[in-house]
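Chapter review: from sequence to fold.
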Amino acid sequence: MTLDVAVVGAAAFGASLVSLFSGFGLGTLLMPVFALFFPVDVAIASTAVVHAANNLFKFGLLARGARREVVARFGVPAVVAAFAGAAVLTELAQSDALAPLATWQLGGRTAHVTPLGLVVGLAIVAFSLADLVPGVARLEAPARWLPLGGALSGFFGGLSGHQGALRAIFLAPLGLAPAEFAATQAVIALLVDGARLAVYGVAFGATMRGDASIPWTNVAAATACAFAGAYLGKRLLPKTTVGALRALVGALLLVVGAALATGLA
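The C-alpha cell string follows.
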C-alpha cells in the first residue's frame, strides 16, 4: 500500500466517523488530504465521488429518519446552487492553465498562486476558522432562512465540497433528534453530490486540464474506509462529543487552506 492510499484511507475513515454527529464532515477533511497528492480540481472531484458513495451508504442506514419537509425546503435550493458552484470550479480549473496570478520564492521553492488554489484555499481557511473561533460553531439561523441556507451550502458544496458546516448552522435550530439530523443531512448531501458530480463528469470529459484523471485506487480505498467509519459512527451516535476534534481539524485545515491559497501546495 502506497503512502497516499494509506493517508487518504485513514482520513476518510476518521472524517466519516465523526460526520454523523458533527458540523463538519467527510468532504471538509478529505478534500485537503487528496489535495496533498493531486491537483486541486482532481482532489475535489475525487472527494465528491467518495462523498457521494458514502452518503448513499448512509442513506441506506438512516434514510427512514429524514425529515421530508426539511429536505424539500433546504435540499432543492442546495441542488440548484450546487450546479452553479461546480460550474465556477470548472471555470477556475480551466484558468489554471494560464499564467499564475503571482509567483514567489520560499526556501528555494517557487510557489505559484493560481485562481483555483486561491479561491478554494480561502474557502478552506474560512470554514476552518468556524471551528476555531469560540461561539461560531454554535451559530444557529432562524428556520425561515432554510432556503437561503440551502443555496449557500449547495454553492460551496459544488465549489469546494464544504457544505456540512453551513448545513449544520441552518438545521441545528430545528430541534431534530440526532438520528433525524444525521438522516436529513445524508439525504441533502446525496442530492448535492449528484448535482456536482454531473458537472464534474462533463468537465472532466471535455475541458478540464488534460492531465486530470480520477485516482481510482485512492477513491476505492477512501470509499471502503468511509463506509467503515459511517458504520461505526452509527453505532456510537450520539455518545460522542467532538469539540476537541473540531479544534484540531480546524487548525489542520487552516494550514492546508493557507498553503493552497499561497501556492505552496
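Two observations follow directly from the output. The chain has a mean pLDDT of 80. The chain is about 70% helix and 5% strand.
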